[in-house]
Write a structure and sequence with these properties.
Layout (H helix, E strand, L loop, with lengths): L1 E2 L10 E3 H12 L6 E8 L13 H7 L8 E2 L4 E3 L4 H11 L3 E6 L14 E6 L7 H20 L6 E8 L20 H4 L2 H14 L19 H4 L5 H25 L14 H7 L1
Parallel strand pairs: 2-5, 3-7, 3-8, 6-7
Antiparallel strand pairs: 1-4, 1-8
Helix pairs in contact: 1-3
C-alpha cells in the first residue's frame, strides 16, 4: 500500500486480515486522495517478487524511490484475505467515490476527467505455473498498473495492492525443481565405493594446515598414505626398488674388493725361462 499523501501508519509484519482491513478503512476515512486503486493479484508467492525485474514500478514506489510517494507500507504475512469489498464500500459511502472496474485481461480502460473522487477496482488474473511465465506475466501486470497511474487526471492517489497465495499443498512454482539422479545399482551395492567417498570427504573437510574448523589438530583415520602426505605411493615404490639395487651394488663392490692378486704377477721374468720364451 502506497500513497501520495502522508496517511499510512506503521503496521506490524504479521496481522490478521480483519484487523488490517479495519486499519485501512480508518486511515482512508480522511479522504485525502482523489483516486483509490484497489489491486488484487491472486496466485502469487513471496518468491515471485524477489526478482528485481519482476515488478520494477511497484518496487520503486513501495521502497520510496519514487519521490511522488510520500508514504508506503507493506505487510509480509496476513492471516486470511483482506476484505477489499469492505474497503470499496467504505470509500463509496464515506468519501462519495464512484466505483470503476477495470478489466486487466483486455488491456483497455477509460477514466473520466472529473473532479469527483473515484475508486478503481483492478483484478489481475492468477499467474501461470511456469517460473519464467510467472515472471513475464507479473512484469506485464506491473506495466499495466504503471500505465494506469500515469493516465490518472490527478496526482493524488492511493494504491492498495493485495495478493493471495496459491494452494498450500502445492510447492512454490517459482522454485526450480531439483534434478533427480539415480545411482547405478553396481555403485550402490559396492561398500568399497562408499568407503572411498567417506575418506575423501574426511580429507577435504580439514584445512590446508591440518587443523579443523575449531583450531584443534585432527588426525584422519585411515591407511598410512592418507594419514601422512609426505609418504606417497610413488615414493614408497621408489624405496622398494632402490633397496635391492643398493644390495646388488654392495655385492658387486664386495666381490671386486675381495680379489687377491700378488704383486709378483705383474713383474717381468728375467731368468732362463724368459729367454727361452723369447726365442
Amino acid at each position: 500500500m502506497f500513497s501520495t499523501s502522508e496517511l499510512l501508519p506503521s503496521t506490524p509484519q504479521i496481522v490478521p486480515a480483519k484487523a488490517l482491513t479495519e486499519s485501512i478503512i480508518s486511515v482512508l476515512s480522511s479522504c485525502l486522495s482523489d483516486t483509490y486503486i484497489i489491486v488484487t493479484q491472486p496466485g502469487v508467492h513471496a518468491e515471485d517478487y524477489w526478482d528485481r525485474y519482476a515488478a520494477p514500478h511497484l518496487r520503486r514506489k513501495v521502497q520510496g524511490e519514487d519521490k511522488a510517494i510520500r508514504s508506503a507500507v507493506s505487510v509480509t504475512d496476513v492471516l486470511l484475505d483482506v476484505d477489499t469489498g469492505a474497503i470499496v464500500r467504505s470509500l463509496e459511502q464515506g468519501c462519495g467515490a464512484a466505483l470503476l472496474k477495470v478489466d486487466a485481461s483486455t488491456g483497455s480502460f477509460t477514466i473520466a476527467d472529473d473532479p469527483h473522487p473515484r475508486v478503481i477496482n483492478l483484478d489481475f488474473p492468477a499467474l501461470p505455473a511456469g517460473h519464467q511465465e510467472r515472471v513475464d506475466k507479473l512484469l506485464e501486470h506491473d506495466a499495466f498498473l504503471a500505465s494506469l497511474l500515469d493516465l490518472l487526471p490527478t496526482s493524488k492517489y492511493t494504491v492498495i495492492y493485495s495478493t493471495t497465495a496459491t494452494s498450500s499443498t502445492s510447492p512454490p512454482p517459482s522454485a526450480a525443481e531439483p534434478d533427480t539422479y539415480e545411482m547405478d545399482p553396481g555403485f550402490s551395492s559396492s561398500s568399497q565405493t562408499h568407503m572411498e567417498l567417506k575418506r575423501d570427504l574426511t580429507i577435504h573437510g580439514k584445512r590446508a594446515d591440518g587443523t579443523s574448523s575449531g583450531g584443534n589438530v585432527t588426525l584422519v583415520d585411515g591407511p598410512l598414505f592418507e594419514r601422512y602426505a609426505f609418504l606417497s605411493p610413488g615414493i614408497f615404490m621408489g624405496l622398494l626398488i632402490a633397496i635391492p639395487l643398493f644390495l646388488i651394488l654392495y655385492v658387486g663392490v664386495s666381490a671386486v674388493g675381495s680379489l687377491q692378486v700378488s704383486y709378483a704377477a705383474f713383474d717381468r721374468e728375467m731368468g732362463p725361462a724368459a729367454q727361452k720364451k723369447g726365442q
